[in-house]
Every structure is written in structure tokens, then in C-alpha cells.
Amino acid sequence: MNKSPDIIIIGGGHNGLVCAAYLAKAGRQVLVLEANTQAGGLGATREFAPGFRASVAHTLPQLGKRLVKDLELERHGFGLAAQALPTVAMCTSGKHITVSGNELGGASASDTAAYPAYLQLMQKFAKAIKPFWHKRPPLLGSGGLRDAATLGQFGWKLRALGKQDMRELMRMIALPAQDLMDEYFESPLLKAALSWDANVGSKLAPRSPNNAVIALLYRMSGDLTGGLPLAKGGCGGLMDALAAAARAHGAELRLGSPVARVIVEQGQATGVQLGSGEIISAPTIVSNADPRTSFFKLLGARHLDVQFTHRINRLRMDGQVAKLHLALESLPNFTGLAHPDGRLLLAPDMAYIENAFDAAKYGGYARQLPMEVLLPSLRDDSLAPRDQHVLSALVQYAPYTVKGGWDAHRDSFLENALASLERYAPGIRECVIAAELLTPADLEQQFGVTGGHWHHGEFALDNWWMNRPTYGASRYHTPVSGFYLCGAGAHPGGGIMGAAGSNAARALLEEN
Ligand SMILES: Cc1cc2nc3c(=O)[nH]c(=O)nc-3n(C[C@H](O)[C@H](O)[C@H](O)COP(=O)(O)OP(=O)(O)OC[C@H]3O[C@@H](n4cnc5c(N)ncnc54)[C@H](O)[C@@H]3O)c2cc1C
């Protein structure tokens, strides 16, 4: 970049890249400064053992067609390795239940009959709320026309559900996942599987009230394929395409360039100082880092008022999910599953998930760990050497702060995860060549995300929409002029979706 940038984006996670691409496409000179040597943040695909590659985020349920089209991501190399992976609720006896589209395989007659109506209702609710994930939250009491219109549209979308379904949404919205599942289904195994997306990534379990249904609807916000997609090359395939799109529009990406602080002069952000000491000036600074990093480490609390600082301090940012990557010499045998191709959920019932959560609440972890397991190399041979495989698993619950520290517990947590896997895939250990376990503390250290939190802070009603990350910073701009947010800690939240990045870009273009 010959000219000095108009906009500096701190962090080249997917939201930073999306924001950069939209801003550069609109003609702004954009510089992205990424601390790691690879762009993509939690979505980057990395080699974790020689010849074996995986990304921390592994599926794309929230990605939308619009982003792919707007940024011409296919032209920049994005493709899918799987359109719609089925979900398999795994049973140690081999009597699994498969969820594929609106069909169940292996379920009871009553559950098979109940599922299409349940799915249709949830899809209807998800569709009503979806447009608001892609809009800037309204400012309450602003008197502005646009804010009033957004609130009006929200009310109208709910009303347009019809009286019966609107009332039903209002009744259901704060239910614990367990109550929702108990209303519709009888099989403990199926209930555990269908409750999974309501809780994964948050400090929630099936009995937690208030947030599960909204989190479930949020996870249903993608429309790329109508199913559970996998990117070619892992999520990193998408990250590379986003980086290529941003560059093609003229953005510059500087990797291995951690920002140490944002420079503020007379209440206005005017540039950044890198860890190397280099200073780069720009009138607009956008942070893809989480809110606590953005406001405290980068900006400094001295530039913020006390109440705002307290609210950021109180954000719940302790991650609960560990990521396990296994390099496998051969394909393991899962009992009763001829071909382990799908999202395999390892949780026999909701109590199993709740028990694991109970242990984590008090700084421990369960012996039997609920897991979401994929073997992405079955769909994508670029991830492992020929005839060998990658196992990629979300393991819950792994509290960010474990009593005694993770160094003392890493081996035993890994042992519990392998033992939990072995109940479904006897002998799997013999296939393991190498293992990488990333606890929330590792994710914090390697990806710069406070607490290693999936959403850069809980996705919860108190931290939602015009309260995300908190009022005073929910519309991408912050109390410091020229300093913006564009990461998962901003509206609408985490998951590979790009909405925070694109909403922030739109907000910036409207204001500047
Ligand atoms: C274990 C786990 C599994 C997940 N699995 C899935 C999944 O399967 N599907 C899904 O949709 N979502 C998943 N998620 C959630 C998803 O990965 C995140 O919500 C998403 O990656 C957030 O994107 P982001 O761009 O906002 O932030 P990030 O991906 O966190 O990127 C932020 C970037 O900012 C950089 N940065 C931070 N500080 C600085 C600094 N000072 N200077 C320069 N750069 C800096 C970081 O290095 C990083 O690259 C998962 C999350 C976790 C923790």
C-alpha cells in the first residue's frame, strides 16, 4: 500500500477479512494487521501433525449465500467438501439415530412423526429472526427513522408468524433446551442430539434457562446448502478465499503483525503501534479482537468511562469447549456405523451433557465427555496423507480455568476424551499417530481470544442485539471516536458467519 490507510483492521479473523473485503470493495484503503502468521483466526486450517491439517472451527452452519456471492468467494477458491453432513446421534450399542434434512433414521415411530413439525416450526422462527443478524442493532430512544424502522420490522416479523406461532415463540424463547426436547420427543438419545446446537460453545447445558432457544435459532441462520456444510480445505479454505477477495479489492494484509495498542489523541483514535514499535496512522481503527482485548489491552481503560469499563469487565468470557485433533493411521471402526461420515454426537442423553457441565461449573471436568466428532478427511483428501485420516472433535465441557491449571490436567482430560471416544469406537487408540488438544486456555494463547470463548463472550439474552457486547458499543462504533468493533463479540455473535464483519463495514461506510 503506497498511500497511508484510511482504515486499519486489527485482526484477520474471518470477520476482520469480511470487513476488509467490503470496505476495500467500496474503495477504501484498508490495512489488516494480523498477529498470527496465518489469517483466519479460529477458522484457519493448520498442520497439527506432519501431513495432517485441521481448523478449530470445523463446520459452517451459519454461513450465508449472500456473503459468498457479494465477495465472489468461489472465484477466489472457496468450495464445499460436503453440502449437508448428516448428524448421527451415536449409541454405544450401535443403535444410532440419524438426522438428515427433515428425516430421522432409526428413531421411534412417535419421534419420527414429531420431527418434521418440530423442524418446520424452528425453521420458521429462525427465518423470522434471521434478517436481524445481518442488520445493525437499533439504538433505543434515538428518535431516528431507521432505528424505528428496524424495531417496527422486528415486531412485524413476529406478528407475521401468525398469532398462534408468535405466542408459541414467546412461550418457547426462554425455555431450557431440555424442556423444549421433552415437549416434542421421547428418545433420550435423540433429545441429547437435538439439544446440542442450543448449547455448544456457551456456558449452557440442557437445563440452563433463557438462552438455549435463541442460540439454537442463531445456529440455524445459514442458508448455503440447507444442511451442515464443510469447506474444502477445512474452514481455512473459506479463510483463504476471504483473504484473496480482500486483496483482490486492494486491501493489504500484514501477517505476523501484532498490534500492541491503539493510539488515542484528544479522544480520537489516530493509529496503532505494533509490537515491533512501528506506528501506523489512520483515522479509523476497527478491532476484530474480542471486546476485553479491544477495550482494555488495545485501547486502555483510561479512555473509557467507569460504567462502560465495568460492563466490559463483567462480560462472561470463559470458554467451555476444547478442540481435539487426532491424526489417524487408518479409519477407526465405530460400532454399528459402516462409514463414519457425518457429524457424530457422543452423548447418550441430556443428563450426560448436564453432568459434564456440572463438573465444569466448579473448575473440574467429567470422566465421560460429550463430543461432536467429524472425520473431515473422508470428504477432503487434502487434510491427511493418503488412506489416513483426521478426527476433529469439539469436547465439552472444558472450563477455561481448571482447578490446579491446565498443565496439570491436560493429559488426564485427553485420556478422558479418548476413553469417551473409545466407548463408541473400540480400538481407536491403536489408530492414533498424533493428538493435539486445544483447551480454552490454549485457544486464548494461540488465537488471542480472551478465555478461548467461541463467541468472544457469552451469546446470551443479556448480551444480545443492542446489548452486544454492551450498550454504548452495540452498533460497531465505541465510546472512542474512530474506534470500531467488527468481531464475534459484537452483534450478532460468533460462528463462522461474517455478519459482524459485514455489518461493521456497512456501519462504517454509512458514517464515513
Ligand atoms: C473450539 C471452537 C470450535 C468452534 N467450532 C465452530 C464451528 O464448527 N463452526 C462455527 O461456525 N463456529 C465455530 N466456532 C466459533 C468460531 O470459530 C468463532 O466464533 C469465529 O471464528 C470468530 O471469528 P472472528 O473473526 O470474530 O474472530 P477470531 O476467529 O477469533 O479472529 C480474531 C483474530 O484477531 C487476531 N488478533 C487478536 N488480537 C490481535 C492483535 N492485538 N493484533 C493483531 N491481531 C490480533 C487473532 O490472531 C485472530 O486472527 C468455534 C469456536 C471454538 C472456540
Instruction: State which percent range the strand residues make up.
Output: 15-25%
User: What's the CATH class label of one domain?
Assistant: Alpha Beta
- Unreliable spans: none
Averaged pLDDT, please?
96
Biggest sheet overview: 8 strands, mixed
- N-to-C CA distance: 21 Å
- Given the C-alpha coordinates, what overall shape results? globular
**Helical residues, percent:** 25-40%
- The CATH architecture of one domain can be given as 3-Layer(bba) Sandwich
Number of DSSP strand runs: 20
Strand order of the largest sheet: 8-7-6-16-17-18-15-19
List bound small molecules: flavin-adenine dinucleotide
Radius of gyration: 22 Å
* Total helical segments: 15
- Which class of secondary structure composition applies to the elements? alpha/beta
Q: What is the CATH topology classification name of one domain? A: FAD/NAD(P)-binding domain
CATH superfamily of one domain, please? Answer: FAD/NAD(P)-binding domain
What's the short version?
This protein has 512 residues and is α/β, with parallel strands linked by helices.
